[in-house]
Amino acid sequence: MECTIDWGGPEGMLFVARTGSGHVTAMDGAPEGGGNNLAPRPMEMMLTGAGGCAAYDVVLILKRGRHAVSGCQVKLTAERADTDPKVFTRINFAFTVTGANLPDAAVERAVKLSHEKYCSATAMLAKTAEITHTITVVNT
Predict the structure, then answer these.
(1) One domain for residues 59 and 117
(2) What is the mean predicted confidence (pLDDT) over 47-74?
(3) What phi, psi does 57 have (nearest 5°)?
(4) pTM of the entire structure?
(5) How many domains are contained in the chain?
(6) In terms of residue numbers, what domain contains 101?
(7) pLDDT digits (tens, 9 = 90+) for 11-57
(8) CA-only gyration radius of the chain, Å
(9) Strands 130-139, 88-100: pairing kind
């Protein structure tokens, strides 16, 4: 896996990332840090990556279990250290999983497997942050 990050130039703090899979994304800083608020912050991107990784796992686990999952949303709330490096110290993943006749136990198992076994992003962030989660199952 690889990516390349290019600075947008002296007008601000915009950075453009090109991934090995051929995708492009931007990151920027807050105005008080020299940025122009044109894109997410790098730490927001890390949080987004962890949420995407966990949601991917949950949906895949439920689908493999032949459950009729039709939606998955995860809202992450994080706290950071007060001093540099301002690492994440607490992260809560609030899952809302929707589907037909979804057993609560199956969704709870999928979330647990993601956090304890499959999600690489969560595993890395757990080195500095307390990871918690809440689960809401919506049966349609």
Answers:
(1) yes
(2) 98
(3) -60, -50
(4) 0.92
(5) 2
(6) 42-139
(7) 899 999 999 999 999 999 999 999 999 999 999 999 999 999 999 99
(8) 17
(9) parallel
